[in-house]
Specification:
The complex is a heterodimer of chains A (about 350) and B (about 300).
Chain A: H1 21-25, E1 43-44, H2 64-77, E2 82-84, H3 89-106, E3 111-116, E4 119-124, E5 129-134, H4 145-150, E6 156-163, E7 166-173, H5 182-185, H6 190-193, H7 205-214, E8 222-231, H8 242-245, H9 257-260, E9 261-272, E10 279-289, H10 290-293, H11 297-309, H12 312-317, H13 324-331
Antiparallel strand pairs in A: 1-8, 2-7, 3-4, 4-5, 6-7, 6-10, 8-9, 9-10
Helix pairs in contact in A: 11-13
Chain B: E1 3-15, E2 18-25, E3 37-42, E4 48-52, E5 63-68, H1 76-82, E6 89-93, E7 96-97, E8 107-113, H2 118-130, E9 134-140, H3 149-156, E10 160-164, H4 172-176, E11 183-189, H5 191-203, E12 211-215, E13 225-229, E14 235-238, H6 244-250, E15 269-273, E16 276-277, E17 291-292, E18 298-299, E19 304-306
Classes of the chains: A alpha+beta (about 350), B alpha/beta (about 300).
Keywords (chain B): 2Fe-2S, Flavoprotein, FMN, Iron, Iron-sulfur, Metal-binding, Oxidoreductase
Protein name (chain B): Ferredoxin-NADP reductase
GO molecular function, one term (chain B): metal ion binding
């Protein structure tokens, strides 16, 4: 599939972000059943379904340039969205290597990597970047290596240090989170940063998930989908900017629900970083408006049933309580049997 | 489990009982690895043993391992010493790390005995690169297990503390006492060393989370036995020099595994009945009533019925 980048769109102010029909067709609709409950829905991250978001480990799509401009805008206002603790310097290089290798291998028309020992040359044709540098020497890049490469890659990235039989959130780039903060979670253990999630801990989900992640091996990455809802196609729904978007939840009406409410799906990819033994947790976010989503009748019907029957605690955690009924009422028209 | 193709590069006998082997990529490069990682060698005789990578973790052009000839060899170390030739091709597993450096340690105290030096060779390269505070305490026998003494002397300078067995005793009590907060200790060597380390560190009040060790993880031979697989009704015979895990693999039954020496817990398998001689260091006493580690444990009486 030829990858064509759309002209610049916005994820704030006038919210000009839209999906093309091709982007809608490849949207990772996350519900395999008519009802949703937590599960450790992890699968090996092997390439499947050419053209889908599951073809490559790190998906680049038509929104690439807009999303990179949005990341730059967030960082300009708040540089601390990127954080690398001193002991994670090596993991940052691991990530840079992994992303450059994948991008150059999967999208050779847009990204090129030449390596001669530690002398590397990186070209990002889409963004007009041509950088020669020394692998392992942070001074040879314009900025810290994790920041450098994630300014060129869609999605958020957390690097987890593995020690004491646990994982710690010790580095990352997080500018498009679903209401969580890297600065707040920094240094926390796996269970600490998951403590706001209702029900799942009692179900033993985190126990099993942690055990699984601790055993991820080099060359055997895994992935899972997660989801929530967002008002407007806003990527940066972080606690730091809650005052800018929190009140949007009160603006949903029967007339605007189709264009205002978006399903937000995270394709999470987890991999062992070979040099540092850290774990990569990357979160690639996809947004789709309700109007775009119901263009697929099966999706409209299923989403109606999922949201109608969702346990209240989960709905509350996902921040949809204020407009849930309005949304379910609107979706009902796409569920002929309801 | 996916495996990598490797070609045997230079092999050299560095003491009368230790052979160092280089592993080269068949094409391109090998994956980078973290200090403390091991790979499994898939030998042509069906044996798969895990060996620490001792080469520079940043060097993806080759790996190096060192294999000590074991008197009780089941054929793994003997094959490496007597038959493995430069140019041979074999499969190796991707590197996995069950013995990593602790990233927030302020001081790393490394204790090696004999061939237990191998993971620490990679550690030292990495710690020097980081400019980290560390000490290597290396106990060995002159002419037998002193393979890397000269190299280390040159590389490490005052980081290195040597204990030649006839000349100087390694006193763990002294070594572990009066250490600053944030010190982590790591040991690799025979079981007697690891037992002493646990005992001494406990007595001196070391938090368990700051004491790390890696055992020489390798199955030992025993008498032949037979297991039955409950779900298929199949019977699998295990030879005297074979582990149950190897016998299952030969029969086409793949179980997840990493250390192949009864330490990591990956190959834990439930069983329904039978007499088991548990030889692992992983399962708790009460878990042994229903689980076994096929990488090391064996049958020793009434036939074992595996719940797989």
């Amino acid at each position: 599939m030829t990858l064509i980048f759309k002209p610049a769109e916005t994820y704030r102010d006038d919210f000009s972000f839209r999906n093309s029909p091709a982007a809608i067709a490849r949207f990772p609709f996350p519900f395999p059943e008519d009802a949703y409950m937590y599960s450790v829905n992890i699968e090996p991250a092997v390439s499947r379904d050419p053209g889908s978001v599951f073809e490559h480990s790190f998906d680049v799509d038509e929104h690439y340039l807009s999303e990179m401009a949005e990341r730059a805008r967030v960082l300009e206002r708040d540089p601390e969205r990127c954080l690398v603790m001193p002991h994670m310097a090596q993991a940052a290089w691991d990530l840079l290597e992994m992303l450059m290798e994948h991008l150059a291998g999967d999208y050779p028309q847009h990204f090129l990597l030449e390596r001669n020992g530690t002398a590397w040359r990186w070209q990002n044709l889409a963004m007009g970047i041509d950088q020669s540098f020394t692998f392992g020497d942070a001074d040879s890049l314009p900025c810290e290596p994790l920041e450098y490469i994630t300014r060129q890659m869609q999605g958020d990235f957390a690097l987890l240090d593995q020690r004491d039989g646990d994982l710690f959130m010790d580095a990352g780039m997080v500018t498009c989170p679903a209401d969580w903060s890297l600065r707040f979670d920094a240094g926390m253990s796996f269970k600490q940063w998951h403590s706001p999630v209702p029900m799942a801990n009692q179900m033993g989900i985190f126990e099993r998930a942690l055990k699984f992640l601790l055993n991820i091996q080099v060359g055997h990455p895994v992935r899972r989908l997660n989801w929530t809802l967002t008002i407007n196609p806003r990527l940066d729904t972080s606690p730091e900017t809650f005052h800018e978007w929190g009140s949007d939840r009160g603006s949903v009406t029967p007339d605007n629900v189709g264009s205002l409410v978006h399903l937000r799906v995270e394709l999470q990819h987890m991999a062992r970083l070979p040099r540092s033994n850290a774990v990569l947790f990357s979160i690639r976010t996809y947004l789709i408006s309700m109007e775009e989503l119901v263009s697929n009748p099966a999706w409209g019907r299923r989403l109606h049933r999922v949201l109608r029957d969702l346990p209240d605690a989960i709905a509350d955690y996902k921040g949809m309580t204020r407009y849930r009924q309005t949304l379910v009422d609107w979706l009902r028209q796409f569920d002929p049997e309801a | 489990m996916s495996a990598l193709d490797a070609r045997v590069g230079e092999t050299r006998l560095i003491t009368p009982v230790i052979r160092e082997v280089s592993l080269m990529p068949v094409n391109g490069t090998l994956p980078a690895f973290s200090a403390g990682s091991h790979v499994q060698l898939h030998l042509p005789n069906g044996k798969r043993n895990a060996y620490s990578l001792l080469s520079d973790p940043g060097d993806t052009s080759h790996y190096r391992i060192a294999v000590r000839q074991q008197a009780q060899s089941r054929g793994g170390s003997r094959y490496v010493h007597e038959q493995l030739q430069t140019g041979d091709q074999l499969k190796i597993s991707s590197p996995a790390n069950l013995f990593p450096l602790h990233s927030t340690a302020r001081l790393h105290v490394l204790i090696a005995a004999g061939i237990g030096i191998t993971p620490f060779l990679a550690y030292c390269t990495e710690l020097l690169r980081r400019g980290a505070a560390f000490e290597l305490h290396y106990a060995y026998r002159a002419g037998l297990s002193d393979a890397y003494v000269e190299v280390l002397r040159e590389q490490l300078g005052e980081h290195l503390h040597l204990y030649e067995s006839s000349a100087r005793r390694l006193d763990l009590g002294q070594l572990l006492g009066h250490r600053p907060l944030g010190t982590h200790v790591y040991a690799c060597g025979p079981q007697s060393l690891l037992d002493a380390l646990r005992e001494q560190s406990l007595a001196l009040g070391w938090p368990a989370a700051r004491v790390h060790w890696e055992a020489f993880a390798a199955p030992e031979p025993g008498v032949p036995f037979v297991v039955e697989l409950a779900r298929s009704g199949r019977q699998v015979a295990v030879g005297a020099e074979q582990s149950l895990l190897e016998a299952l693999e030969s029969a086409g039954v793949e179980l997840p595994n990493l250390c192949r020496g009864g330490v990591c817990g990956q190959c834990r398998t439930p069983y329904l009945k039978g007499d088991v001689e548990h030889r692992d260091l992983f399962l708790a006493h009460e878990e042994r009533a229903s689980s076994l580690m096929p990488c090391v444990s064996r049958g020793c009486g009434s036939p074992i019925l595996l719940d797989i």
